[in-house]
Design goal:
This protein is mainly α. It folds into two domains: 199 residues, no CATH class; 235 residues, no CATH class. It contains 19 helices and four strands.
């Protein structure tokens, strides 16, 4: 046993105390933070999209302008609500206790109008100035993304939609600079005669060379749809304000669970974290960690085999001790990363730092069986796939040799991923049950179903089958490891059955 632990400590120390691993632990949270900052920077640095409208009917250019202005206002309010969650010192005031319309709320037309009628961004800043966290920056509204330019040149006097499209083509293709545009003209909206917004009229046209950014096309479509609805509502005797009031109607609906005793069964955000978000996140982490440490085991074994280090090790320990030591050491490496992050989150929550989401996540983790379930099925999944990777490493002199075996293993590992969405949406359905009874997928399926109260007999039976499968697989792969680890030439696939028979 001492030899096994020494080998395990050697494997663990080799990776965890390496500079690369320590740098990863330090930089991973920074990468997440910089990633969020980069997304914000990308959002703020989006280019200004210039477009023109050729309108033979009249009134649609103004409708598009109005829709763009309302889009910018909605974007400003959404950004404001997100800003409140991170910038407000909740010991001074809760965001929902701020005066309306500056408190976070549903995005309705009435709130949008009230927000800007009551002073907009400047008034919002004044409301929260005394409640901000120390060092929190003042709110900055996101800039607009679209600007409509007036028609120029031949397009201004075009006699038809076809002529306008022909006149605008050089500007859209960046062959000629459009007056007032910052760079190429991004798009042109053409409204032909006979356009009504209904199926019986002509179709509007959206011309653009860019196929990857549909935001303006969606905005224009919404503007045209809103205008068509307004015109239709007028035939029913409704005014525009009445149509907006109808659009603001949002019937309240509270979700309940019949098996929840607290709070009369009403669901809270923490319940959704417990039943959906955390099981899915831990399943993904399980898959990534198991595959990652399995690759470590594979490359480590191949490196020691090709460099003849394994011969030195086997002069002091048995093949079984070497195999078990490697399994334990690399398993500890696989648990170190999630353990560091979970303990860091726990420390942050206990210290009162972080936001409510972090404290809620940590609370759910340590107030439930998730951690215990994760650890148990981590070791089960690790035992299954680690033995496969260990055997592949033993029969390979290089990573190139291992590729012929890794293809089928990769297919086995990632085959259920498309079905995991079905398990997530219906954790006690037929797909979830089938995956649960397949031993190599049992850990992932059970993790996804852990909070959905699956039939206990099914979980116990599938787990027993998985354990039996793991024992048989360990014996088979262990024989291959013992028989092939000292062979100078890697055996061929057809010789593996012989290795299984001779490795015992």
């Amino acid at each position: 046993m001492k030899a096994i632990l020494l080998i395990a400590w050697r494997e663990y120390k080799q990776y965890v105390l390496s500079r690369g691993f320590l740098i990863f632990l330090v930089t991973f949270p920074l990468i997440i933070g910089f990633g969020g900052a980069a997304l914000g920077l990308l959002e703020s640095s989006k280019p200004l999209r210039s477009f023109v409208v050729y309108d033979e009917v009249g009134g649609y250019a103004e409708a598009i302008d109005r829709e763009i202005a309302e889009r910018d206002q909605r974007n400003t309010i959404s950004t404001w609500d997100a800003y409140l969650t991170v910038a407000i010192d909740k010991s001074k005031i809760a965001p929902e206790d701020l005066p309306a319309p500056f408190a976070p709320a549903a995005m309705t037309a009435s709130r949008r109008v009230a927000f800007f009628a009551n002073g907009g961004v400047e008034a919002a800043r004044a409301v929260v100035r005394d409640y901000l966290k120390s060092g929190a920056p003042l709110f900055a509204a996101p800039r607009g993304q679209f600007v409509r330019l007036e028609l120029a040149g031949a397009a201004r006097g075009a006699a038809s939609v076809e002529a306008a499209a022909q006149a605008l083509a050089p500007y859209l293709l960046d062959a000629k600079p459009f007056p007032g545009a910052d760079g190429a003209l991004f798009a042109a909206v053409l409204i032909p005669k006979g356009y009504t917004g209904g199926e019986d009229g002509a179709e509007a046209q959206f011309w653009s060379k860019n196929l990857t950014d549909p935001a303006l096309e969606i905005t224009v479509s919404r503007a045209l749809t809103t205008t068509a609805r307004r015109k239709l509502s007028e035939t029913f005797g409704l005014r525009g304000g009445q149509l907006d009031a109808l659009a603001d109607v949002e019937a309240p609906l509270k979700p309940y669970r019949p098996d929840k005793a607290e709070g009369g069964g009403e669901l809270q955000d923490i319940d959704r974290l417990k039943s959906a978000v955390i099981p899915a996140a831990m399943t993904y982490m399980l898959l990534v960690v198991v595959f990652g440490v399995g690759n470590l085991l594979l490359t480590n074994t191949i490196e020691e085999r090709s460099n003849k280090i394994v011969e030195i090790l086997l002069s002091s320990v048995t093949a079984n001790e070497l195999m078990l030591g490697k399994l334990l050491g690399i398993a500890a490496v696989g648990l170190t990363m999630p353990a560091v992050f979970v303990l860091g989150g726990l420390g942050l929550a206990l210290a009162g730092g972080g936001d409510e989401t972090i404290r809620s996540l940590v609370g759910v983790l340590f107030d439930s069986w998730f951690v215990v379930i994760y650890l148990f099925y981590f070791f089960c999944a690790y035992a299954i796939f680690a033995m496969i990777f260990l055997a592949i490493g033993a029969v390979s002199n290089s990573l190139q040799d291992a590729q012929s075996y890794m293809g089928p293993v990769m297919l086995l590992v990632f085959a259920p991923l498309p079905l995991m969405v079905m398990v997530f949406q219906n954790p006690n359905g037929i797909i979830a049950s089938i995956l649960t009874w397949i031993p190599i997928y049992t850990p992932y399926a059970v993790m996804m179903r852990a909070a959905a109260d699956p039939p206990i007999w099914e979980i116990v039976g599938a787990t027993c089958l998985m354990l039996a499968f793991a024992i048989v697989l360990a014996r088979v792969m262990g024989r291959i490891f013992r028989a092939a680890i000292l062979q100078s030439a890697p055996p061929k696939a057809k010789d593996l059955i012989g290795l299984v028979r001779s490795g015992g």
